[in-house]
Amino acid sequence: MTMELRTIPGCPHSASAGELFARALALEGLNAAPLAVREIHSEDDAAELGFHGSPTFTIDGADLFPVDTEPAVTCRVYPTPAGLAGQPDLDTLRGAIRAAVGVSAGSAG
């Protein structure tokens, strides 16, 4: 299983999204495999990877928050309880991870 955070150069959420993803994976018991980070530099790369903005959280190449928009080298926003933000909240990301891998809830956190 591969976990990858996809970002664009200069994304203001890259570091915090990486920390968030690592924490969510650990809480779900999925921290055995390393978390890869890939920067998307071109529209061609975005189209090839189905990249819909930075940051994008993936497991085995699948976007944990699929959208119907065209792939693009751009920023991305996520709905959170506090409104739109540059990354999902921890509980929402954990739920997306569980849905993607089909595991039961990890340890409380």
Automatic annotation (TrEMBL):
Domain of life per record: Bacteria
Record protein name field: Thioredoxin family protein
